[in-house]
Every structure is written in structure tokens, then in C-alpha cells.
């Protein structure tokens, strides 16, 4: 399988930069798989997983929203946050999930429902990804 260059960038760092065979991300219209030679595209991303395929193995990270840009043989994902399963603080993610669920259940007049829903989705995504094994 042909390779292309993938960069995953957060405000804090260059999270990932290497040659890959394929990457799958969650776009606003569903999952988007990118292989070498794909037509150029720039599209927003949803909270979800990024699946990176290298040397026949898959590696998964949790990302928040952002966008993906495909140009020639380079793909760039810009996201607010990205974490490999081993880097996720599962207790912190569970606490965030509980707080978001409580906010949504209470529904006080001054609650930002959209913000609470996004916090819940981020926490659930992080919990799910934390249970995935990485390849060595």
C-alpha cells in the first residue's frame, strides 16, 4: 500500500507526524477514509477517533473537533486536543462525564446545553479510546 504524510496538530504540539497508509476520521457527514492520491478536500471534524494505519497496524487516538485538510500526498489534522489511549486519564474522563450528565439532567436556566453536550461527547470518546490497545 502507498504511503502519504500525516500531521496531527494541536495548539500545544505536533501530536503526530509520520508516513501512513491510511487515516480515518469522523467528519461532520460521517467517517472519512483517506488513502494516497485522494482528491483534495478540507472539511470540519467532529469529536471522535482518528484511526491511523501504519505497516498494516492500526493506532487510535481521541480527538476533539477541528478540521482535516488533504492536499497532494499530505494530510493535516488540526484539532483542539488529541490523546493516545495510554495518555488518557480515565478517572478524569469519568468525572467529566458525570459532571456533564448532571448538568444536562438539572437543566438550570443558566446552563449552556450545547456546551454540556459537547463535554459529554468528549468524555465518552476519551473513555472509549482509553480502552483501545495501541500497537508497538
TrEMBL record:
- One Pfam family matching this protein: ATP-synt_DE_N
Which SUPFAM superfamilies does the UniProt entry name for this protein? Epsilon subunit of F1F0-ATP synthase C-terminal domain, Epsilon subunit of F1F0-ATP synthase N-terminal domain
Annotated coiled-coil positions are 90-117
Instruction: Tell me how this protein sits in the membrane.
Output: Peripheral membrane protein
Q: What molecular function does GO assign, one term? A: ATP binding
Superkingdom of the organism of origin: Bacteria
Q: Which UniProt keywords apply?
A: ATP synthesis, Cell membrane, CF(1), Coiled coil, Hydrogen ion transport, Ion transport, Membrane, Transport
- Keyword check for Coiled coil, yes or no: yes
| Start and end residues of each ATP synthase F1 complex delta/epsilon subunit N-terminal domain | 4-82
Q: What Gene3D superfamilies does the database record attribute to this sequence? A: ATP synthase delta/epsilon subunit, C-terminal domain, F0F1 ATP synthase delta/epsilon subunit, N-terminal
Q: Which InterPro entries match?
A: ATP_F1_dsu/esu_C_sf, ATP_synth_F1_dsu/esu, ATP_synth_F1_dsu/esu_N, ATP_synth_F1_esu_C, ATPsynth_dsu/esu_N
Q: What are the GO cellular component annotations?
A: plasma membrane; proton-transporting ATP synthase complex
Cellular location(s): Cell membrane
Task: Please tell me whether the keyword Glycoprotein is annotated for this protein.
Answer: no
Q: Domain ATP synthase epsilon subunit C-terminal spans what residues?
A: 86-131
Write out the function statement from the record.
Produces ATP from ADP in the presence of a proton gradient across the membrane.
HAMAP family listed in its UniProt record: ATP_synth_epsil_bac
Task: Report quaternary structure and partners.
Answer: F-type ATPases have 2 components, CF(1) - the catalytic core - and CF(0) - the membrane proton channel. CF(1) has five subunits: alpha(3), beta(3), gamma(1), delta(1), epsilon(1). CF(0) has three main subunits: a, b and c.
Q: Which NCBIfam families match?
A: ATP_synt_epsi, PRK00571.1-3, PRK13446.1
Family, according to the entry, reads as follows:
Belongs to the ATPase epsilon chain family.
The name of this protein is: ATP synthase epsilon chain
Q: Which organism is it from?
A: Tissierella pigra
Amino acid at each position: 500500500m502507498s504511503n502519504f504524510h500525516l500531521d496531527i496538530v494541536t495548539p500545544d504540539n505536533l501530536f503526530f507526524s509520520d508516513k501512513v497508509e491510511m487515516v480515518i476520521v469522523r467528519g461532520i457527514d460521517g467517517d472519512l477514509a483517506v488513502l494516497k492520491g485522494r482528491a483534495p478536500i478540507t472539511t470540519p471534524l467532529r469529536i471522535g477517533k482518528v484511526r491511523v494505519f501504519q505497516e498494516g497496524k492500526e493506532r487510535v487516538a481521541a480527538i476533539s473537533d477541528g478540521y482535516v485538510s488533504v492536499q497532494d500526498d499530505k494530510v493535516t489534522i488540526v484539532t483542539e486536543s488529541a490523546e493516545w489511549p495510554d495518555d488518557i486519564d480515565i478517572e478524569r474522563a469519568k468525572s467529566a462525564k458525570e459532571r456533564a450528565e448532571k448538568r444536562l439532567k438539572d437543566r438550570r436556566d443558566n446552563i449552556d446545553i450545547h456546551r454540556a453536550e459537547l463535554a459529554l461527547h468528549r468524555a465518552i470518546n476519551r473513555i472509549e479510546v482509553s480502552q483501545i490497545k495501541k500497537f508497538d
